[in-house]
Design a protein that fits this description.
Number of strands of chain A: 11
Distance between the termini of chain B: 37 Å
Number of helices of chain A: 0
Radius of gyration of chain B: 13 Å
Distance between the termini of chain A: 41 Å
Oligomer: heterodimer
Shape of chain B: globular
Radius of gyration of chain A: 13 Å
Order of helices and strands of chain B: EEEEEEEEEEE
Chain lengths: ~110, ~120
């Protein structure tokens, strides 16, 4: 069973800063890793999906890297904005599974103030 | 990406009553659906996995007689919380996967259940 840990648990920064959110997982035999955004009381928005064969994925100001061997992923957010305020979740599937069942970390709660 | 619709987005019910939550895949056939629960300040925890036309597989500690899951069609799965109690108050969210995107699951908007 996967154990997913996210650090830090919370982050509060002024607008414009570049941010680093960390995720670690215990079983490196994964097919992919996914980063989500969750707004208070809302569902999940998929941000980036990194396949195990990839080392990083980029979407706009977001860049996620994956180091399978060490069981780590990092989400970089460039030039943060107040609209980025949300909880960011990292999730990985079961060992060797492609079925879409995911194990989640507790998230990093991000607040970006103007 | 594919669209998954979950309804209702929030519900308040009296203790002892049952509540049904629907999860629909709008533009793809969801051969597998997953139901998660999230308590405040906690991570999402998988409750059960359902494959279309089969009985759901429940995670350890989840009562199958209390959380009834039906996945009778390729576009609809329902979760019924029976005889709800205040401790069942939580955020419930479904995800769905199916061909050709079997390696990715798409999430509904979630349902905030409050039992009073």
């Amino acid at each position: 069973k996967q154990e997913v840990t996210q650090i830090p648990a919370a982050l509060s920064v002024p607008e414009g800063e570049n941010l680093v959110l960390n995720c670690s997982f215990t079983d490196s035999a994964i097919y992919n890793l996914q980063w989500f955004r969750q707004d208070p009381g809302k569902g999940l928005t998929s941000l980036l999906l990194i396949q195990s064969s990839q080392r990083e994925q980029t979407s706009g100001r977001l860049n996620a890297s994956l180091d399978k061997s060490s069981g780590r992923s990092t989400l970089y957010i460039a030039a943060s904005q107040p609209g980025d305020s949300a909880t960011y979740l990292c999730a990985v599937p079961d060992r060797g599974s492609t079925l879409g069942r995911l194990y989640f970390g507790r998230g990093t709660q991000l607040t970006v103030w103007p | 990406g594919a669209v998954v619709s979950q309804h209702p987005s929030w519900v308040i019910c009296k203790s002892g009553t049952s509540v049904k939550i629907e999860c629909r895949s709008l533009d793809f056939q969801a051969t597998t659906m997953f139901w998660y629960r999230q308590f405040p300040k906690q991570s999402l925890m998988l409750m059960a996995t359902s494959n279309e036309g089969s009985k759901a597989t429940y995670e350890q500690g989840v009562e199958k007689d209390k959380f009834l899951i039906n996945h009778a069609s390729l576009t609809l799965s329902t979760l019924t919380v029976t005889s709800a109690h205040p401790e069942d108050s939580s955020f419930y969210i479904c995800s769905a996967s199916g061909p050709p995107m079997n390696t990715e699951a798409f999430f509904g908007q979630g349902t905030r259940l409050t039992v009073v």
